[in-house]
Amino acid sequence: MLIGIAADHGGFELKRELAARLEKAGHTVTDFGDDRSDPADDYPDYVIPLSRAVASGAVERGIAICGSGVGASICANKVPGVRASLIHDHFSARQGVEDDHMNMICLGGRTTGVENAWDVVQTFLAAQYSREERHLRRLSKVDAISPRVG
Ligand code: RB5
After folding, report:
1. Ligand 1 and 43: CB distance under 6 A
2. Strand 2-7 vs strand 28-31: parallel, antiparallel, or unpaired?
3. Which of 18, 59, 72, 122 could form a disulfide with 64 if both were Cys (CB 3.0 to 4.6 A apart)?
4. How many domains are there within the chain?
5. pLDDT at residue number 20
6. Residues whose CB is less than 8 angstroms from the CB of residue 136 and which lie 6 or more positions away in sequence, other chains included
7. Which residues span the domain enclosing 48?
8. Domain containing 113 — which CATH number?
9. Which has the closest alpha carbon to 6: 52, 47, 39?
10. CB-based burial of residue 108 (10 Å sphere; 0-12 exposed, 13-18 middle, 19+ buried)?
11. Is 68 close to ligand 1, i.e. is its CB under 6 Å away?
12. Of the residues 18, 29, 66, 84, which is catalytic?
């Protein structure tokens, strides 16, 4: 799968670990930065380009990491076509895709341990949108707020 990943200093170490594991698992990973751990960097500078790549289809799924995952999530959802959420657990990683068509997962580099992050990322990537009528209906109501892209 084509995967994009991005993080500020709060998520830099987790990004590096997840990117290595994803490559080892056979995925193609595009790293949108930061390329170093800079305490002065700002997550929108990396999350916005990643979000645009997800929205355009340049990458199939996105992984955005900041210290808590909150800023990354708020930022990603500003880009039309992105359906992002901060995820801490296995159930939500799967259901977020199956029911809500989540195409970007946001993680907290300071709140989520490596093994839990790896579990939710693998779960997120393995899940597919159900396209069941009730989920399509709900998403169409969400999309009525801002036009659907992709
Ligand atoms: C950066 O220190 C921190 O505020 C950021 O990574 C993130 O947690 C914001 O939500």
Report:
1. yes
2. parallel
3. 72
4. 1
5. 98
6. none
7. 2-143
8. 3.40.1400.10
9. 47
10. buried
11. yes
12. 66
For the chain, give the number of residues: 150
Cα of 109 vs centre of ligand 1, distance in Å, is: 9
pLDDT digits over 85-124, tens only?
A: 999 999 999 999 999 999 999 999 999 999 999 999 999 9
**Domain membership flag for residue 149:** no
The ligand 1 atom at the shortest distance from the C-alpha of residue 8 is 6
66 is catalytic: yes
Is the pTM value of this prediction over 0.70?
yes
Q: How far apart are CA 101 and CA 73, in angstroms?
A: 15
For the segment 45-90, what is each residue's pLDDT rounded down to a tens digit? 999 999 999 999 999 999 999 999 999 999 999 999 999 999 999 9
Closest ligand 1 atom to 9 CA: 6
